[in-house]
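# nightly structure sweep
# worker-07 picked up a monomer target from the shared queue
# config: single-sequence mode, recycle default, output format = C-alpha cells
# input follows
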Amino acid sequence: MKEMSKKGEKFYTQWKERRKKKWLYIFLNGSIYWGLTIAIVLFLWDSHFKVENMQLSRFISSIIIFGIVGLFIGFNQYKRIDKIYLSLRDDNDILKGIDTLKLGKVWNYENLIIKKLDDGTLLIKNELFWFADSEVLTEKLNECFNLVMSDFQRIQKNTDFNEFSKNSTIRIQIFDNSESESPLIDKIFIKNNAL
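# output follows
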C-alpha cells in the first residue's frame, strides 16, 4: 500500500469495505441518490409545482427512466473510485517485487532496497538519506530508521508480501550519503516478535 495522508487512509479503509457491496453501491448512488432525486425535481418542474398538473403515470415513468440511467452513472462512479483505490493498493508492484526477491535479486520499492539473503533473512536498506553529513545525529538517524520501518510495515499490510515474509528474519540497515559499506544502524528482528 502506498504512503497516504490520514484522509487517504480513511478513504482506503472505507472503500475496502464498500467495494465488497458493488451492486448495492451502484444502486444506491446511481438509481436512488442521483436518479430518484433528478426524477422528482424534473417531475415537479414539469408540473410547474401544481398538484393538478401532476400525473402518477408520468411520475412512475420518470422514476424508471432516471433509475436506469442512474445505474450507468453509479457504475461509472464505482469504476472511477475503485481505480483510485487500486492505484493506492499497488498490489501488482508488490507481486512483481516478490517475484524479484524469489529470484535472489534486489527489489527497489519507494525508499527501500530489499533483498532476500541465502539464510532467508530479508535485508532492508534505505535508498535515500535525507540529511547532510553535518546533521548525522542520533535523533536524525532514529528518524530515518523509523521512516524506513514505517515504509516496510506498509508493505506488510499486503497479504501476499506478509505471507512471503512470515518466516523471515528482518534486518534493517540505515546508510548515509558517503557510500560507505558500514551501516550507521543495523538492527535485526524476528518478524513474529517485533513487527
